[in-house]
Structures are given as C-alpha cells and as structure tokens.
Amino acid sequence: MTERGERLRKERAPGSVGRAAMVSGVLIAAGTGLGFLRDLVMADLFGASGSTDAFLVAWTIPETVSPLLIEDAMALLMVPVITRLLARGDGLRPLVGTALPRMVLGLSVITGALAFAAPAVVDALAPGLAEQGPAVQCVRLTAVTVVTFGVAGFMSATLRAHHRFGPPAAIYLAYNVGILALIAGLSGAVGITSAAIGVAAGSFLMVAVQLPAFVRCLRDAPAPAGSVDVRLGLAAIAPIVVYTVTRQAQVFVERFLGAGLAAGSISHLNYAQKVAQVPMVLSLLIVTVTFPRLARASADGDTAQVARRIRQDLAVASAMVLAATAFLVACAPAVIGVLFEHGEFTSADTASTAAILRVYALGLWGQMAVGLAARAFFAGRKPTWRPAAVLAAGLAVTAAIGGAFAASAGTLALAAANAAGITLAAVLMLAGLRRGVAPVPLRRVAADVSRLVLAAAGACAAGMLAAGALDAPVLLQLAAGGLAVAAVFAVLAVLAGPDLVAPRIASRPFGGRHRRGRIESGDSSEQADRTDSSDRTGAAAGAGAAAGAGADGGGHPARAAGTDVPLGRPLR
What we know:
This protein is an all-alpha fold.
C-alpha cells in the first residue's frame, strides 16, 4: 500500500471518524448558539423597527445562498464527484483548476448584478418597504456572500470527501463571530448597517477557517490522471436545488407581503421564526443521524427496512416537535420576554412576537415532516421531483392565504399561512412515500401522530394553567409552565399508547425478531409491518452492512458521501 493510501486508511479508521463526528457536533452546536446570540444582540440594540426590516430584506440573500451553495446542492453534488476521484486514485488539481475558477467567475457576475440592481431587488422582495435606502445598502454588502459562500461550500465538500470534518463544521461559528464582532465595533457609528458589514466579513471567515486544510488536500493530491465530468451530478442535483429554493420561497412570500404592513412587522415575524426553528432543527438532527442507514437500506432495495426506519424516525421526531409546540404555545409571552425584551425591544414588541410565535408553532410538525420525508425521497437511487412539486403546492396555499388575509389580520395571517402551507405539503409528501419510496404504514403513522397531538394539546393546557396560576417573576412562570408541559405530555403519551415509546427501543429494526402483529389489531393489513422469514434475512443482512458503514463512516470511498449529509438547516 502506498504512503498516501495508508494515510487515507488511517483517516477513515473508526476511532478517527468518531472523534471527528464528536468535534463536528460541538462546533455545529457552538455555531448555532452564536447565531441565536446574534439575534438576541440585534434585538437588544435595534429592537423591531423599519431599520431591522431593511436588514432582513438584505438577509434574504445569504439565507437563500447558504442552502444552495453550502448545505444542500453543493455538498450533494461535489462530495460524490470528489469521492469518485479518490476511488480512482486521481487528484483534485484538475477539478480545482477548472471548476473552481469558473464557479468563482460565474458567482462574481451574479454578485455584481445584485449590487448594481439592489434598488430593484429591494422593490421585488419587499415593495413598499419603509426604509428602502438602508435596505439597498445592506443588499449591496450582503451580495458578496454569493461568491464567498460558493467558495466555502466548495471547500466544505472537498474536505468532507477527504473525511476532514472539523473545518467545515466550524464555518457558521466563524461566520457568526464575524457578524457579532462588527456589530459590537460599528453599531454605534453606522447602526443596522454594521450587521450587513458583519455578514460580508463573516463570509470571508468561512473561507479562511477552511483554507489551511483545503491547501493541504491540494498539496497531498497525486498528479492528475484524467478529467472529471460533472454533468450527471448536475442533472441529479437539479431536483434538490429546486426543492431547496421552493422551501426558502416561503420566506420570500412572507417578507413580500409583510413589507406592506406596519414597520417592524418583518422583524416580529423573524424573531418568532428563529425561536420556533430551534425544536424543529433539533428533531431533524435525530433524522440526520439515521439517514445513512436509511440511504443504505434504500440502496439495497430493502423497502420494508426503509418503511420501518421512516415510521420510527417520524414517531420520535413528532414527539419532540409536538412537545415543543405545546410549550411554545403555552409559554410564548414568557419565552419572548425572557429572550428579547431588553434594550430597544419593548413590551409591545414582545406581545406581537409572542402572538406570532403561537401561530408559527402550529406548523412545526409540518416543517419537521417535510424535512424527514424529503430525506427519504432523496435517499433513492434516482433523482425525484416530487418533494419540489409538493412544496410548490404548499407554497401556493401559503401565498393565497397570506395574500387574502394579510391586510385584515396582519402578521398573524402570514404566520397562519406559513403553518397551513407547510402542513399541507407534509401530509402530501408523507402520502407519496408509500407509492414512491417504500410501503410506509400510513394508517399507523396517522394514528401515532394523532395520539401525540392529543397529548400535546393536554400538555399545552396544563402549561397555560401552571404558568398563569403563579403570581411570580416571569422566569418562575416559564419554569412552571415548562415542567407542567413536560410532565403531562410524558404521561399522556404513555397513556395514549405504550407502543408509541416501547417499540422504538424494543423492535430492533436492524435485525432481531418483530412481533408488531400483536401490538395493534389490523396490523396484518399493513404490508410494511409484516415480517416473514425473507424480511428477517434481508434485515439481518442490512444490519451487517449498516454496522459496517457506521463503523467507518462509509468504509468504501464510494459510500463516504452517504455518511456526510449536512445537519439539516442550522440557525444562521
């Protein structure tokens, strides 16, 4: 074995990958925490006003570019391409020497166009915005992220394909450090524009934090042995790109309609959404951890295993999200007050944001279910357009409801439109899994979720009573409401059906004996829940393969990309 091959073997060793995963988790959590701190600082310094609305319109650019050039499209395109290069023993230099300059040139043209057309961009995103001048200035500053995010995403995909996970995991930590530093240093002089300058500076730090490791990859690469054709990868990634943009378009609709409302409306929507996103992102982290197993079962054609994985993941994630929904609805005023009511963020801002949060929270289950179902669709061997088409239908509902009722009901109508559209998309996407992915037991899934919804409703009522009964400081009310929600939800979930919890631990989906037919009457009618001898054999084989994949992060280079799916949509 060559020296380079021995080095790669050591890099892919189980202990090495395990340590990398632990470090990545810490760095991602730190970046997410700093992102939330950034929002708290902005609320304290700038409140919710026309100026923060102006910045959030410009913030739409990095919000849209990030999933395309870092998290989803770039990673899912470049990781397999680079993995194939490594499997052939080729180096990165031909790819970097041709693809990277072309990409930078193309993205630079887009950046220049955005900067030149900034007034038109603001008019298109938020017509009638109260403070268009600051918004135009912020758009011109944040437009640079189109280039820097593209370079950062290219580097991240390259490093992940080489099983170097630390620097890519640190990019949002560096990004938010840059934003917070510039806000701290310049907010007194230039106001909200300091945040836009921080976005630009932070995006350069995303590149800088990965540059040393990226250079080492290039330096250690062997001499070129052939060219790279990425056309098939582009064709495969197109459905993911459209899906990502369509999902992000919900924010476009919200800000487009919110621009015509009172100053601060977009900011209230943004603060509420950032709080509501936290439990959804945490639930999707669980789904992300199980995604390699789902992808492996799909690649092996084990549809029964895929169906079991989907149902179990959905039950666990639904329990997390619905419990969080109960807490947010019950304690929204206290949550927003504790987090944001400081400095320029007034009690009136708290009341408006809390009301929005309560409505937004009703769509959290839909957000989670869409993310879970999309992973199941994209785990297949062929690209599929169904997630994008279903999200387009949900987006149409969001736009219709928001457009019809925004003038009369304001921001609450926009939050309700968001919740309705994403919930419809979730139901349609889950229904499509049975025909397009695996024989998912939809009746049992519906029964699981319905019982958890009832448990969440009871827990929410208990939380409201507990928090309202105390004539105490807001922190004590928050603690009382949270404890009541957690306790009542746990009790009601168990009473509603012990199989909501026990089979997740005892069913042993990767091999083992399954006795689901004795849990509920009528199980035999669900094909995915039948386990005959051939199913057990396939499941046992899948267990060995999955264990091997879990041990070395993919083992064979051709499977490395499957273990390196980005962790959902971190808060930025």
